[in-house]
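Re: beginner question about structure tokens

> Can someone show what the tokenized structure looks like for a real chain? I only ever see the sequence side.

Sure, here's an example I had lying around. Input first:
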Amino acid sequence: MSDIKSEYGWDPSLGISLYDKIRQDMKQAMVHKDNAVRDTMRLIMGAFPGLTVAITLESGKKTTRVKKPEEITDEDLMDIIRQFIKSEKTVLEFKKEATSDYLELLHRYLPKSATPEEIEQWIRDNIDFSTFKNPMQAVGPVMKHFGKSASGDAVKEILKRMGPG
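And the corresponding structure tokens:
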């Protein structure tokens, strides 16, 4: 990832919304002629019209309208980025490649995923297996705590390892 500068990317601790950071990075990429970054930001911004709000017209008919910039949440944008990551992984799998600059750049705009060690530690500290008939029943509470920062498959794998039997 040598040609992509480290100033690109986002983290909730930056104190700026993901929406604003994407727009800021787009401008910076244009100034620095970082075409790969510019094109990726355009791709993300191009998906904004897909973000809609349900509304009811005066006639009673239900429809949707595109979200205004101030209505777009970080979670909306992270969902868009996750979709692009998923499709890029499919392409890379087909090409038998592990990663790409594009994929690395997209990952910079998502909060860091929880590590297996962090997940396991949280389970040890917070889950009482005696309250469940089977360790897999703990998936719900664990996923509720970690949200999208942990994959369900990873949580299941850890619970299998930790649970009795």
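Each token stands for a local structural state, so reading them left to right follows the chain. The chain has two domains: 12-107, 116-162.
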